[in-house]
Design a protein that fits this description.
The chain folds into two domains: 2-220, Acetylglutamate kinase-like (Carbamate kinase, 3-Layer(aba) Sandwich); 300-448, VC0802-like (2-Layer Sandwich), CATH 3.30.2130. The longest helix is centred in the N-terminal third of the chain and has 26 residues, at 108-133. Helix 2 runs antiparallel to helix 3 (66-82) and helix 4 (87-101) runs antiparallel to helix 5. It starts with a strand and ends in an 8-residue tail after the last helix. The protein is α/β, with parallel strands linked by helices and 456 residues long. The chain contains 14 helices and 17 strands. The strands form four sheets. An eight-stranded mixed β-sheet has the order 3-4-2-1-7-11-12-10, with helices on both faces. It has helices spanning 14-25, 48-60, 66-82, 87-101, 108-133, 143-146, 163-167, 199-209, 243-251, 262-268, 323-333, 362-373, 400-410, 436-448, and strands at 2-6, 30-35, 138-140, 176-180, 183-185, 191-193, 214-219, 224-225, 237-238, 240-242, 272-276, 285-288, 300-313, 347-353, 377-390, 417-420, 426-432. The protein binds adenosine-5'-diphosphate and aspartyl phosphate. The site of aspartyl phosphate has 15 residues, from helix 8.
Length: 456
């Protein structure tokens, strides 16, 4: 059995839904279909999820949400019209949307999640209706009925282990299951969404639950490329990746797969295949537990901006018992999670997502660290980008770090920080955000320019 997830770009128009239908029906093993909300039709377009968020924020601020709701409805109506679908499906969607938008606003986060979830929920109903119209035994399944139980974290929910047993019953379902991605329910029956792009996570959860032979993730590119295609033209395609490599790359900016989507697949040992809805003949990228090492030490280079660092220095901190605990408890008190902690004998740097500092009084936090840790120096650096150079082969190859550092030096990029060693498969460089693109290009040229094939 295969679980197949289609992203928003694969479901943006009627013509896209026809491709989705052909893909699903071309392989009898494709039994569970996870759908996103309609995505962008072109670069300038808006995703349904973004329109829903805008409508919710307007309603919360006492402004009129209806212009956005009407745009959302128009998206579904256009798809239904393209496919000559009966008007009843649009009426069903309209009633559902109006009930949500007119619902209780007293908990803004809850209200927003109810609206956000409607994007995939209504699209799953629409896709099921279309498949039925084409004569296929396909049915919409609600995540609450199926038992997709998640944690109480609005916009950042996590699946709970007890969900898997009930979700396993989806394997027994007659016909094709059309399942909305991106959200689940708490034990008490309240809607909670995953973080953005979380339909990838739903697909992986279902693949784990039904012990699928394969989790296929259909998107709008032929493969995972060795570098973000908006940074380098026609980058090399990756044929095969390990779970560890893909996790590092998606964490660090390969948005083609949600960074948390691999975890359920890894736990159940299910291979993941990235495929292109617009070119299903292309082989795509396979993500597996182990791969043969080919074509050098590095398989991909990812980067993401939006980080900052807190640098703390104190002589002999290596001898001070409890220094780390005190520093991290200050972060905990301020509700901050961290990403990396490169350290030296007298200093430690904590790298975190800059967004978390938005509601902080930085000066106060610096003073708190200085006084509670008796630190010699504390400072915060903003606007950093993290670059991750990833490859299983790196560990056994001498000189990879030297090549990377040399390429960055040649491109006149100052390395703010290096972290190597804590991960088996990656090296991390922090650079200023303004240098990000130049740095990635330099690294790509160093590690990939001499590889002749289009595929690594
Ligand atoms: N290394 C990469 N390889 C392939 N695609 C990438 C990479 N990094 C970023 N992307 C982007 O990810 C996009 C696909 O992900 P996403 O927009 O979430 O698709 P979907 O609508 O299918 O969920 C691609 O169109 C591409 O722009
Ligand atoms: N629609 C949601 C969830 C999702 O997974 O979408 P997509 O498959 O288009 O990335 C979002 O935009 O975040």
């Amino acid at each position: 059995m295969k679980v197949v997830k289609f992203g928003g770009s694969s479901l943006a128009t009627g013509a896209q839904l026809e491709k989705v239908f052909d893909i699903v029906t071309s392989d009898m093993d494709r039994k569970i279909v996870v759908v996103s909300a309609p995505g962008k039709r072109d670069q300038e377009d808006e995703k349904v999820t973004d329109l829903l968020i805008a409508s919710g924020l307007h309603a919360i601020n006492g402004e009129d949400p209806l212009p956005f709701i009407n745009q959302v409805l128009k998206r579904y109506r256009d798809i239904a019209k393209d496919l000559n679908m009966p008007p009843t499906i649009i009426e069903t969607i309209k009633q559902d949307l109006m009930a949500r938008v007119e619902g209780d606003h007293s908990d803004p986060e809850q209200y927003l999640d109810v609206l956000k979830a409607s994007g995939e929920d209504n699209n799953a109903k629409l896709v099921a209706c279309y498949f039925q119209m084409r004569g296929l035994a396909a049915n919409y399944v609600n995540p609450k009925d199926a038992g997709l139980i998640v944690s109480h974290e609005h916009g950042n929910a996590q699946v709970l282990p007890e969900a898997y047993m009930r979700l396993a019953l989806l394997a027994e379902f007659e016909g094709i299951v059309i399942f909305p991605g991106f959200f689940g329910y708490s034990q008490e029956g309240e809607v909670f969404t995953f973080s953005r792009s979380g339909s990838d996570v739903t697909g992986a959860i279902l693949a784990h639950a039904v012990k699928a032979d394969l989790y296929e993730n259909y998107t709008d590119v032929d493969a995972v490329f060795s570098v973000n295609p908006s940074f380098v033209e026609h980058p090399k395609e990756i044929k095969e990746l390990t779970y560890r490599e893909m996790r590092e790359l998606s964490y660090a900016g390969f948005t083609v797969l949600h960074e948390e989507a691999l975890i359920p697949a890894i736990k159940a040992g299910i291979p993941v295949q990235i495929k292109n809805t617009n070119n299903p003949e292309a082989k795509g990228t396979r993500i597996v537990n182990a791969r043969d090492n080919t074509n050098g030490p590095v398989v991909g280079i990812a980067s993401a901006g939006g980080f900052c660092s807190i640098y703390v220095s104190k002589y002999l901190l290596n001898r001070e018992i409890g220094f780390g605990r005190k520093l991290f408890s200050i972060l905990e008190q301020n509700g901050i999670s961290y990403e990396h902690t490169p350290s030296g004998i007298d200093d430690v740097t904590v790298i975190l997502r800059e967004q978390q500092m938005e509601n902080q009084n930085e000066e106060e936090m610096v003073k708190q660290i200085e006084s509670e840790l008796q630190a010699d120096e504390v400072n915060i650096q903003h606007s950093l980008a993290l670059i991750m150079v990833v490859g299983e082969g790196m560990r056994h190859n001498v000189g990879t770090m030297a090549r990377a550092a040399n390429a960055l030096a040649q491109a006149e990029v100052n390395i703010e920080m290096i972290n190597q060693g804590s991960s088996e498969v990656s090296m991390m460089f922090a650079v200023k955000e303004v240098d990000e693109k130049r740095a990635v290009k330099a690294l790509y040229n160093e590690f990939f320019a001499s590889i002749p094939a289009m595929t690594v």
